[in-house]
UniProtKB/TrEMBL annotation, chain A:
Signal peptide: none annotated. It comes from the Bacteria. Keywords: Lyase. This is Phosphonate C-P lyase system protein PhnH.
TrEMBL record, chain B:
Pfam families: PhnJ. The keyword Cytoplasm does not apply. GO terms for molecular function: 4 iron, 4 sulfur cluster binding; alpha-D-ribose 1-methylphosphonate 5-phosphate C-P-lyase activity; metal ion binding. InterPro entries: PhnJ. It comes from Plastoroseomonas arctica. It comes from the Bacteria. Its EC number is 4.7.1.1. This is Alpha-D-ribose 1-methylphosphonate 5-phosphate C-P lyase. GO terms for biological process: organic phosphonate catabolic process. Catalyzes the breakage of the C-P bond in alpha-D-ribose 1-methylphosphonate 5-phosphate (PRPn) forming alpha-D-ribose. Keywords: 4Fe-4S, Iron, Iron-sulfur, Lyase, Metal-binding, S-adenosyl-L-methionine. It is an enzyme of class 4 (lyase). The keyword Thylakoid does not apply. Belongs to the PhnJ family.
């Protein structure tokens, strides 16, 4: 059995710093934010996705993960979250490989849209100032974001999901130690 | 920092629960999210919702400002500021421009807020429809359907009876043209400041156990009618201390002969104006 990697060096303050990074990303969709308090997560988990899950997941949030046993063991130990193989029953869905279709995840209900899943996707890279045009709450005029490594039909999936607001899945895109968020309220157009 | 407490008083599981609620609140602007509000070392109605939101976002790098009706020097503001200085060892300030987190009861600072600031509101009653429809199950359905005819009827009845909309504070707003939201009991004068504000706005209601949010640059529209447009009302006077004719004023009775003065409700703004004039 391999040795378990540690979690955050300071579980309280590192979680707070990571939360503020996620909050900033969610408040200003498409803006790329760096995680400054990395935890040494096992492969294939990247720094940003590891920080998001350590910060937000716990015993109350079933996680659906495609990242294998080492990650499940690490996350189960440090966050104490239960795992579920069913993506539609998870509060957090971690995709280190191909991202699942948004329609298979829990989108909440009309009355309680906040019960929806948050999809955490590891992507190859994020670039600001080019690519998609993002508009909506949190954005003064428009934000530009290019994402490398998402399914080709992600944009059409997103447009389909926009039609059912306030239901919908919120997405956190993680590349290395950087992340950007796509809350369900954002409108994405091809750049 | 006070020994024996976790950083910022709340335990980590509670903070995580509140943090998840805040993120969903930001993703669904204006929608109220239930959360498990904890007992705090001060009574309901003293800002327990705002304190729990602040405790869940605050870190050692933050500078906290707390205002109560615009003032930094009231009991509520001072005790909350001291609370966080004690349990989180954070820097506190009375200057709006120096703060990274501003917790407020019933006012928005006069100075425009920036992108790197977060405004946390203490909310007594998060449900804007509660005086019109007491059943929560029913108001939830009305929010789901964006069915806000009841509120328009109420405003119309005001106009029919009084000739104007009879709401001077807690004036209902539409957030991003989707959710009807209570702005908390800020004066209607402050409503226009919420519209497309560069700072993130978070709302916490402790007794009612609700959190909601307005992300930066989000349209916030005060409800009105074409022939009865929304007007931000202020007392038609200048501040006795700083002579400002733009700020929101408190009326202070000075004697029993009918004497009164008008002073800025935002004490930091008033002081800044006085320093500039001096």
């Amino acid at each position: 059995m391999s040795a378990l990697q540690p979690g955050f060096a300071d579980p309280v303050l590192d979680a707070q710093a990571s939360f503020r990074a996620v909050l900033e990303a969610m408040s200003r969709p498409g803006r790329i934010i760096a995680i400054t308090t990395p935890a040494p997560a096992p492969a294939p988990l990247n720094t940003a996705a590891a920080a998001v899950l350590l910060t937000l997941a716990d015993a109350e949030t079933p996680v659906c993960s495609d990242a294998g046993d080492a990650v499940a063991g690490w996350l189960g130990f440090h966050a104490g979250c239960p795992f579920t193989p069913a993506p539609d029953r998870a509060r957090f869905v971690l995709a280190t490989g191909a991202a699942p279709a948004l329609t298979v995840l829990d989108a909440g209900t009309e009355e309680e849209p906040q019960t929806s899943a948050t999809l955490i996707v590891q992507v190859e890279a994020l670039a600001a100032g080019e690519g998609w045009r993002l508009t909506g709450p949190g954005i003064e005029s428009e934000h530009r974001l290019r994402v490398y490594g998402l399914p080709e039909d992600f944009l059409s999936q997103w447009q389909a999901q926009r039609a059912r607001f306030p239901r919908g899945v919120d997405v956190v895109l993680c590349a290395g130690d950087r992340l950007a968020a796509l809350p369900r309220s954002v409108t994405i157009e091809e750049g | 920092m006070e020994a024996g407490y976790n950083f910022a008083y709340l335990d980590e599981a509670t903070k995580r629960m509140i943090r998840r609620a805040i993120l969903k609140a930001v993703a669904i602007p204006g929608h109220q999210i239930p959360f498990g509000a904890r007992e705090m070392p001060l009574p309901y109605g003293w800002g327990t919702g705002g304190i729990q939101v602040t405790a869940s976002i605050i870190g050692p790098a933050d500078t906290l400002k707390v205002i109560d009706q615009g003032a930094d020097d009231t009991t509520n503001a001072i005790s909350i500021r001291r609370f966080f200085a004690r349990v989180a060892d954070v820097a506190t300030t009375e200057r709006t421009e120096d703060a990274s987190i501003i917790q407020t009861r019933h006012r928005i600072p006069e100075a425009p807020l920036r992108e790197d600031q977060i405004l946390v509101y203490q909310v007594p009653m998060p449900e804007p429809l509660f005086r019109l429809e007491p059943r929560i199950a029913e108001t939830k359905r009305m929010h789901a359907l964006a069915d806000y005819g009841l509120m328009h009827t109420k405003l119309y009845e005001d106009i029919a009876r009084l000739g104007r909309i009879g709401t001077a504070y807690n004036y209902p707003v539409m957030v991003n043209e989707r959710y009807l939201m209570s702005p908390s009991p800020i004066p209607a004068f402050d409503n226009p400041k919420m519209d497309r504000m560069p700072a993130l706005q978070l709302f916490g209601a402790g007794r009612e156990k609700r959190i909601y949010a307005v992300p930066p640059y989000t349209p916030v529209r005060s409800l009105d009618f074409e022939d009865h447009p929304f007007r931000a009302i202020r007392a038609p006077h200048a501040c006795t201390l700083c002579n400002s004719t733009a700020s929101y004023l408190d009326e202070v009775v000075t004697d029993d002969q009918g004497g009164r003065v008008y002073v800025c409700s935002d004490t930091d703004f008033c002081r800044t104006e006085q320093e500039r004039a001096a």
